[in-house]
Amino acid sequence: MRRRRQWFAVAAVTAVASCGGGSTGPSNGPTPAAVAAVAGDKQTGTVGQALSQPLVIKVTDQSGAAVPRFTVSWMVSGGGGSVSAASNQTDAQGQAQVTWTLGHVAGSNKDTAFAHAGGLSASFTASADAGQATQITIVSGDGQTGLVAQPLAQPLVVTVGDKYGNPAINVSVTWAVTAGGGGVSAASGATNAQGEASVTWTLGPDSGTSRDSAQASAPGLSGSPATFVASGATTAIYTDPAAFSQVTASRGTPTIVNFDELDASPVNNTVAGRTPFDGSHYASQGVTVASPGGYPLFVAPGGLPWNTSNSLSVGRFPYESDTAQTAMDDADSLLVTLNPGCSAVSFQMLDIGIGANGTASPADSVKFLDASGKVVQQAAFPRDYTSYRAFIGVVSTTQVVTTILVAEAAHNGDDVDYDDFQCYP
User: Fold this and answer.
1) How far apart, in Å, are the Cα atoms of 159 and each of 73, 135, 136, 163, 408?
2) 282 membership: H or E segment, kind and range
3) Span 135-233: which CATH code?
4) What is the pLDDT of residues 333-359, one digit of tens each?
5) 22 Cβ neighbours under 8 A, 6+ residues apart
6) Which listed site, 5, 103, 228, 392, has its alpha carbon 20 to 30 Å from 264?
7) Which of the four CATH numbers 2.60.120, 1.10.530, 1.10.287, 3.10.450 does domain 258-424 have?
8) % of the chain residues with pLDDT over 90
């Protein structure tokens, strides 16, 4: 097992004899001029254990001769741990030594010690490896809900550590599915520099709550086996575009047919589109409709500068001429009709209008509907969709989505923009 190291430091410090106090050397004896490390520097040890060699220093006078019976004070200045004596005296060769027991933390940590007498010191460094692996724990990936027969959005991750919690490197971890069918991406693997091991878990063919399980095992370690539980579903919401791309990789080219703007009932206006939308035709145009807030609401396919072929601007952006936000509430709802319907669909949303707050309320939601108007799946708005383009997608193995209804409650002048619509048959 390869081990991770940490540097520690300790110093041997001499104290100069003084009148009127306890003598630190023989009266009228030689005055120390230097303190040097003789042995024990730059060792490698294990956390919580004594180094194999003692720390040895030598005290000499101005002529280079040894200074015997001189008191040396020892202390650890970084990384924790302890020395076998807080102070001792040099021998006839001017040498003194202690045993150094390292602290409990592995990793990089270089420090130096300091002297309180005469400004004389000798420093030592040591590297500390993690101890023997004793425990395995789950880091992430437990309790997920995913699409049946598809990989879960998050990998299963465990960490292996010593008794102090330091990561243990190159420890073998065995993986296996224990219920529900499906499989993991690797039967075994070694822990990395962070002491972690991970696999991707593809669920079995049946749906159900907490009916799938998988285990990570490392014999002899506390917590082994570590058990993960997951629930299989025929329809799943995705907020991670990478995970969505993974499950739709084999579904062909996405299409989009038309946008409908819905701000009240019945539909105020329908914008017939093309596949894909022609940005040169739509980018300079906005369709004005009435809004409950009392100001004109613009709907512009291809209206976003960064995506003129597959986007929809709802609200006043980018046609707002005011220099300040108008203090009016408006509920901007969007209806996207998919023709033909799709088993997987996604889009991104961003609030970048004047006075954008992009903060979801409990009333905000996205509904994915089938041809009969039945809800296939429903998702809450992302908590924040001003600082980044939020992603929402749904994949179903049994139902077809024909309509996306984005229901945004009244916020103070929100202008929400949608783009990158992807619909897979």
Assistant:
1) 41, 8, 6, 13, 42
2) helix 279-282
3) 2.60.40.10
4) 666 777 678 899 888 876 644 334 444
5) none
6) 392
7) 2.60.120
8) 42
